[in-house]
Amino acid sequence: PKNFGEASAGTIKADKWQSLITIYLPITLVSLWGAGTLHSSDEHPVYLRIILDHTMELVCAVYLACARTMTARRAEAYHSHITTYVRKLQKIHPTFSSFHIYDYLLLFGPAHSWWCFSFKHLIGILQ
Q1: Which of 47, 57, 76, 113 could form a disulfide with 85 if both were Cys (CB 3.0 to 4.6 A apart)?
Q2: For residues 9 and 3, is the Cβ–Cβ distance under 8 A?
Q3: Which residue, 87, 90, 64, 62, is CA-closest to 75?
């Protein structure tokens, strides 16, 4: 929504979160923090690049998990991105775990066929 973040935007559903995370967030962060942008100090762009790279690991993991088809190679790529994300997360943010999704991708195939209810429920709780 145009007024994302405002109360009048209402509750954002899972498909909108996916679009925000896989499309709009990367474009916005690269525009704000990428090469050629101005910063208040020499250390600031280094820190922002660390956060940007970390965020992109999550974006890649979400993109792979949301693919309409799943292969062992894609599941491995997801596992690689989420592993990197979680390892760095411990240094940057509070602990978070989503390693179980790798097993689910191998067991149940594409995430869109099995995750909607539980993730929509979780997002509703978080909001």
Answers
A1: 57
A2: yes
A3: 64
Residue type, 12: I
Residues 85/58, Cβ–Cβ less than 8 Å = yes
What is the pTM (predicted TM-score) of this model? 0.64
Nearest to 108 by CA among 100, 98, 120: 100
Residues 6 or more apart whose CB falls under 8 angstroms from that of 111 comprise 65, 66, 67, 70, 101, 104, 105
- Check residue 1 and give its pLDDT: 64
Task: List, for the chain, all residue ranges whose pLDDT scores fall below the cut of 70.
Answer: 1, 93-99, 115-127
Q: For residue 105, what is the enclosing H or E element?
A: helix 100-108
The answer to whether the beta carbons of residues 43 and 82 sit under 8 Å apart is no
